[in-house]
């Protein structure tokens, strides 16, 4: 059994305090609106020291998708972030989180000053923060743009201000009871904007309005803000930005309370942004999936065959299992709620938000950018529900239905790979039962297996499946889009090795993904091309496992007809054994050792060697990629010992994925840097 995350359902402020204080809890599920009170913290030594990463996750309303509201009532100094500790908040409406000037003193009053030298992190994702006062929209963008980011978080500040609010509710037209029932992210506000990617140091202000650093940074990602009032330009011109907002907070000057915005069409499927739709309450539905094709997927924008966007309905696509998974609210006791953490089996329900139908209401915009090609089809860029996606399309015989031409069968380029490796699950030349039909049959089976696995997975280090169609003529998977692949990070910069801290961060993410999958899901094709990366070269780097076409979902270990499936350079010795038909999750652990070696050395394992030579070296002569290829300063003893353990010829003696996580965390502490981020 793999290790479980420990989650606590939170329906009262007291349970939030319990979750933060309990070192075994790493995730709190906010199941309803909460107003924090001083009594919630009685019995705790304050501030509560948070020495581990913690996520507070809002359970969005089943009725309208509204985020639950967490009203801080300007509670102060209840929690202290430890060094290199990250507190993450997702899908929450944040109310009264600060009583001061947020533009001058960004942060959350609940968080106390860190200890000298500590550096913590507060991250918000898909939240909405309610601000008392904002600058006019154009000025708001200018103020954020010139605010420096923390030195360890390079990049540009990204913000959109003055977004339209279609479908919002004007509570001024309602009586007090009806107005109170409207969630914050469904109301009309004088101004709404989006912090796409904004990083700020957290400050307090002293009596003289001087900034005092609080020992942590705030990273605001895809988080909306809503303003209860807007500064007037005349006030800013007369008193300055700081003087005006200070005077208004003290009530000396009234702010502008803008009238509710007029509803406007902002949910365009062929371009533009969909953020205002989400912020004002139009939720992402689950009624089906259709495709909008834009431009020429063969030649790119402006190509010879470029055409206006057209809508294409997918075929009838039915989910394989009933979709019944839902969060459970916590009982009024100190009870851990384990969500999506049990071992995944065929009895695990598919995630309910994965769209498998072809009913109106959902569209995928296929953009004129091909991310990968193979003889099975294409992976193209797209937009789905307002977010960038990667759309995996099968097969050659049906590419015309997508407006694309078929590639010759000799093509061997893999999705997301620049190395010319065979695509996962692609039949080799001459290995066809009934010609092309047999090859297509196997590809569609692999696609179905990928849906069976990814449709049940919900983990930070496993790529997210958003929608799929498993019926002709338009087989496809719609998945979250990542920025790059590990293959490109390792081999795309000749002469440059991945920084050791990045190596350990990626290795930890991969190990955590395997820990979540094992033992019932075996990836069977773990390699750099199947590890996708977001936010490379930044403290927010995250790695996710992808391409589960060779994976199988089983309750127990069972025989396989194709133990040799995989990429030869990364295959375990038992996969080459002629009489072996049992492949367990320990094959992934062997592949992980090769992956770690590749990241540390910057070399390709068994370069230019044919499969037969690799098989004899690994299985017959017990050879492994040379550790001497890794510079000595990049191979501390703990990593060397770990790689050798992964490469043990006996699968039973290889470490479990949970052990990989523990050893890598120790190694990361040994070399320094962010642990667990």
UniProtKB/TrEMBL annotation:
Residues 412-437 are annotated as: Disordered. Gene3D superfamilies: Phosphorylase Kinase, domain 1, Transferase(Phosphotransferase) domain 1. InterPro entries: Kinase-like_dom_sf, Prot_kinase_dom, Protein_kinase_ATP_BS, Ser/Thr_kinase_AS, Ser/Thr_Kinases-Pseudokinases. The keyword Cell membrane does not apply. Residues 413-428 have a biased composition (Low complexity). The keyword ATP-binding applies. One of its GO terms (molecular function) is ATP binding. Keywords: ATP-binding, Kinase, Nucleotide-binding, Transferase. Residues 365-666 form the Protein kinase domain. It comes from the Eukaryota. Pfam families: Pkinase. ATP binds at residue 392. This is Protein kinase domain-containing protein.
């Amino acid at each position: 059994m793999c290790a479980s995350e420990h989650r606590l359902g939170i329906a009262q402020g007291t349970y939030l305090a319990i979750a933060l204080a309990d070192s075994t809890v790493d995730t709190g599920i906010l199941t309803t609106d909460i107003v924090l009170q001083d009594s919630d913290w009685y019995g705790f030594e304050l501030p509560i020291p948070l020495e581990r990463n913690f996520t507070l996750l809002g359970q969005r309303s089943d009725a309208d998708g509204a985020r639950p509201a967490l009203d801080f009532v300007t509670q102060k100094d209840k929690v202290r972030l430890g060094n290199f500790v990250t507190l993450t908040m997702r899908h929450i409406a944040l109310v009264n989180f600060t009583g001061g000037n947020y533009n001058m003193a960004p942060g959350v009053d609940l968080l106390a000053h860190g200890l000298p030298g500590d550096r913590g992190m507060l991250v918000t994702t898909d939240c909405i923060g309610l601000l008392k006062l904002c600058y006019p929209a154009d000025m708001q963008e200018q103020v954020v743009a010139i605010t420096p980011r923390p030195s360890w978080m390079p990049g540009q500040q990204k913000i959109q201000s003055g977004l339209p609010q279609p479908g919002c509710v004007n509570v001024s037209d309602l009586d007090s009871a009806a107005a109170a029932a409207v969630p914050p992210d469904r109301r009309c506000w004088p101004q709404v904007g989006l912090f796409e990617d904004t990083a700020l140091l957290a400050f307090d202000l002293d009596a003289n309005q001087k900034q005092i650093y609080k020992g942590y940074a705030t990273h605001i990602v895809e988080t909306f803000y809503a303003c209860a009032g807007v500064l007037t330009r005349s006030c800013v011109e007369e008193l300055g930005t700081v003087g005006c907002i200070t005077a208004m907070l003290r009530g000396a000057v009234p702010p502008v309370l803008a009238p509710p915005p007029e509803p406007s069409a902002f949910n365009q499927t062929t371009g533009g942004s969909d953020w205002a739709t989400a912020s004002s309450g139009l939720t992402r539905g689950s009624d089906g999936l259709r495709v909008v094709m834009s431009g020429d997927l063969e030649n790119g924008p402006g190509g010879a065959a470029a055409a206006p966007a057209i809508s294409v309905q997918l075929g009838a696509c039915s989910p394989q299992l009933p979709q019944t998974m839902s969060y459970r609210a916590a009982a009024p006791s100190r009870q851990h709620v384990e969500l999506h953490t049990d071992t995944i089996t065929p009895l695990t329900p598919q995630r309910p938000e994965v769209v498998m139908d072809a009913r109106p209401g959902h569209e995928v915009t296929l953009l004129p950018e091909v991310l990968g090609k193979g003889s099975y089809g294409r992976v193209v860029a797209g937009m789905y529900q307002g977010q960038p996606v990667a759309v995996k399309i099968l097969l050659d015989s049906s590419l015309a239905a997508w407006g694309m031409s078929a590639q010759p069968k000799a093509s061997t380029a893999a999705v997301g790979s620049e190395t010319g490796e065979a695509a996962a699950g692609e039949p080799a030349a001459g290995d066809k039962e009934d010609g092309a039909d047999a090859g297509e049959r196997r590809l569609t089976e692999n696609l179905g297996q990928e849906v069976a696995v990814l449709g049940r997975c919900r983990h930070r280090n496993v790529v997210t499946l958003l929608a799929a169609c498993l019926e002709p003529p338009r087989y496809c998977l719609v998945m979250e889009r990542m920025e790059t692949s590990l293959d490109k990070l390792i081999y795309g910069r000749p002469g440059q090795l991945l920084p050791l801290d990045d190596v350990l961060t990626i290795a930890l993410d991969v190990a955590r993904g395997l820990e979540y999958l094992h033992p019932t899901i075996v990836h069977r094709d773990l390699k750099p091309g199947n590890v996708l990366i977001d936010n490379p070269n930044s403290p927010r780097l995250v790695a996710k496992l992808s391409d589960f076409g060779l994976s199988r979902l089983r309750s127990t270990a069972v025989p396989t007809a194709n133990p040799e499936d995989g990429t030869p350079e990364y295959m375990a010795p038992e996969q080459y054994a002629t009489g072996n038909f049992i492949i367990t999750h320990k094959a992934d652990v062997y592949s992980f050792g090769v992956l770690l070696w590749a990241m540390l050395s910057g070399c390709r394992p068994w370069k230019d060697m044919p499969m037969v030579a690799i098989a004899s070296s690994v299985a017959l002569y017990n050879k492994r990629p040379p550790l001497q290829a890794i510079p000595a300063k990049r191979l501390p003893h703990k990593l060397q010992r770990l790689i050798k353990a992964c490469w043990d010829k006996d699968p039973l003696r290889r470490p479990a994925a949970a052990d990989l996580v523990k050893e890598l965390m120790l190694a990361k502490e040994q070399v320094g840097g962010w642990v667990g981020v």
